[in-house]
Amino acid sequence: MNPPTISLSNVAFSYTGTTHTLFEGLSLDIPPGTTTAVLGPNGSGKTTLLHLILGFVAPSDGVVLLAQRPRQLYSRRDLGKLIGLVSQNESVPFNFTVLDYVLLGRAPHLQLLQTPGEADIIVAQEVLAETGLAHLEDRSIQSLSGGERQLVMIARALAQRPRILLLDEPTSHLDLGNKGLVLNIIKRQTARGVTTVFTTHEPDLAESVAAFVVLMRNGMVLAAGPTHEILTAPNLTQTYGVPVDVVEIAGRRVILS
Amino acid sequence: MTTAGQSHTPVLPKSNRLRRRFLSLGALLIITIAVSIFLGRYPEPYWMPPRLLWEDPLAQRLVLNLRIPRILAACLLGMVLSVAGTVLQMLFHNPLVEPGFLGVSQGAAFGAALGIIVLGASPLALQAMAAAFALLGLGLSAALARKMRFGGWTLRLILAGIAVSALFSAGVGLLKYVADPLTQLPELVFWLLGALWSITWTDTLSILPVAVIALVVALLMRWRLNILALDDHTALSLGSAPDRERTVLLVIVVAATAAVVSVAGIVNWVGLIVPQLARRIFGADAQRALPGSLLLGGIFAVVCDDIARVAFVGEIPLGILTSLLGALLFAALMISPQRSQPQTQDTPAAGGRRE
Lengths: 257, 355
What we know:
The structure holds two protein chains of two kinds. The model of chain A has no long low-confidence stretch (mean pLDDT 92). Chain A contains nine helices and twelve strands. Chain A has helices at 46-54, 76-82, 98-103, 118-130, 146-158, 176-191, 203-209, 227-230, 233-240, and strands at residues 6-13, 23-30, 35-39, 61-66, 69-70, 83-86, 164-168, 195-200, 212-217, 220-226, 245-249, 252-256. In chain A, the strands form three sheets. Chain A has a six-stranded mixed beta sheet with strand order 6-7-8-3-9-10, with helices on both faces. In chain A, strands 2-1-4-5 form a four-stranded antiparallel beta sheet, with no helix packed on it. In chain A, strands 11-12 form a two-stranded antiparallel sheet. Chain A has a single domain (6-256), classed as Rossmann fold (3-Layer(aba) Sandwich). Chain A is 32% helix and 26% strand. By secondary structure, chain B is mainly alpha-helical. A two-stranded antiparallel ribbon of chain B has the order 1-2. Chain B contains 14 helices and two strands; from the N terminus they run H-E-E-H-H-H-H-H-H-H-H-H-H-H-H-H. In chain B, a hairpin with a 5-residue loop joins strand 1 and strand 2. Chain B has one domain (73-337): ABC transporter involved in vitamin B12 uptake, BtuC, CATH 1.10.3470.10. Helices cover 70% and strands 1% of the residues of chain B. At the A-B interface, helix 2, strand 6 and helix 4 of A face helix 9 and helix 10 of B.
């Protein structure tokens, strides 16, 4: 199976109750089987872009294609099998164990009244092993550190065995060590042929894992393309509205502002 | 708790211990019900020798026509309130929500008060009024929530529920004020305190269908409930239709709550405390917490009703006992250390424990 593409063409969208149009004539092709980083200041429409792909909100005009098929043709369950989401504020109001929580990711593969079986538990345990969380399996979520908790949320999405993985600011509250763990997970998913898209405020993250970068400002795509072509000082300056420098240190490009 | 007995199979190493817990709780429920049949104040306070069932026709009739329907009603009441409590707490992401929430209890109280004072209603009409106004309470809350222009669905329902409850409780206050203090007020107050003293087979059978349907649907959807307890975006991304699924569960458990409240009056605390207790014993996953809540709720209500009818010559209203025991239990739970996952308490980050 080829990795799925994500393609938006001529999409218009505004939140109900507002006159402000967020997107107008937005077109974007996200390449399959690679990692794409979406960068942009607060309010530029990064999260809304993910929500349009997931069908949480519907465009007033234009088409969203997932694996060459219009998004509306997918049922919720099929979307759940296709796309895994790690949202920004995933809250867990009850004190699930890590394994029970990761098992929730199997929901799109189960019928309405079905409970997870042995095969699902095996998938969940595989995912826990892949994400380095196997030793936490029986721990309760509320006893985890913030970093561990974020990894559990990602594991929950991976238990869906999605072919597209969307992460909304997956590293925003993490220390360097945990950031590294999350980036490794993203790299491994891409290596498996999963189309991975994440939003971030840190251009350096995009530089280190993304093959493709989308720069957004005020609901518009300023630039989209291979990372080394897009992450330039003029582009970033235009995106954030403050002077940004890109310098090369020990063979790596570092973004300074 | 011990970690002994950890098996090497990767699949559900905890399942045997949990099965044992469920079996012992189920057995305890059956024993409680069986013992309750012989508790009462005939022929003398507290205990009726079982042989009277064969020897004494009055004892036979008493057990068959009064005690058994009442014990069953208490069991159903406890099960419905506890399951409804678990479901609502998860749907509203809030462990402090209880089934009377959303205008249901206050609506039922207002309906019953109206029945007693304005219509001088018969017990059956009173039940019908209570059930009708309980559902009206829910309907009003939902309608108001839909009209609100801010906040998520959950917050809007909570706010609407508070407003509708206050409206009905003002109505109940007014009706109490105009009630005849010698004839109507005592009946109203007794109903508001919750009691099963006048339960007959007719009452028990009248709540049985809706209660059983609600319990079965909730049990079938027990794992799905976990998904509905997550935030909307995560639930949607997991392939669920949270609004539709939440509405189905909500209507079903509230209808069952309205039914049991209509025969028993306002019985507080069961739907709040039992789900909390069940989560402590079985963990947060509703796949286990919901059945646990069902069994515990049955036991709790039957025991409370036993005390209510046996302890003193005059009957104590059930609602007072459940509040008393429930509040004590609640306080005890709140100050006891969190041990929702008993077996892992002493093994933080036990790397390699499985190998």
